[in-house]
Amino acid sequence: FQPKLLAGEHVLVTAGPTFEALDPIRGITNHSSGKMGFSIARAARDAGAEVTLVAGPVHLPTPRGVRRIDVLSANDMLAATVHEAERATVFVATAAVADWRPASHSDQKIKKDGSGQPPVLHFVENPDVLHTVAQSARAQSGRLFCVGFAAESENLLAHAKAKRERKGIPLLVGNIGPLTFGQDHNSLLLVDADGVRELPHAPKLVLARELVAEIAARLPGRNH
Ligand code: C5P
Description:
By secondary structure, the protein is an alpha/beta fold. The chain is 27% helix and 27% strand. α5 (156-167) links the parallel β9 and β10 (171-176). The chain binds cytidine-5'-monophosphate. Cytidine-5'-monophosphate binds next to α3 and β9.
């Protein structure tokens, strides 16, 4: 028997990478597999929540009973997420959103011009989906509990603490270990206002269930 820790909640999850198009054929993306986010969506559903998953381009089946919205770019992810966040009570941002996108998009394939000179690419910064949602009136009033993730290559604890403050969120989850992209296992570092807690190395679905319980315990006004 699994206690329905998130009964009555609407959990919104972003997952996977974004794809920032350069022309109709090429673009900028990253190695995020989406596995952590999809595991969280599944664990939240199992915990009795209504779940909406905003997914970048990933090769994963949709967990049963989860509503999935596919997006490509960071701007698409922002629009879908902001819209869905109006109804959500928990937001978990696991997506590896591209920090930058090409400043311009060519409608036609960019061709070699014969000069031997490669093209110069210019970038502009993408919107921060998590920060935008965390600043919304719904989140600021405590009706939407926001959780962020951090993948760092060094100084995870210091970066995680700083990121929690900067994003203005109650809970920040750090990926321990340099490269968890695509792996089925992970270990997590939970950072909140009270301190730090480690969820040791385990399959992502096990970690997702533990994280769901940690989130449920932090929801204001609910006695779990
Ligand atoms: O700032 P940084 O990218 O390291 O923060 C990571 C956290 O912020 C993750 O939860 C990620 O999903 C979220 N994020 C976002 N939009 C961005 C960048 C990061 O939602 N443009």
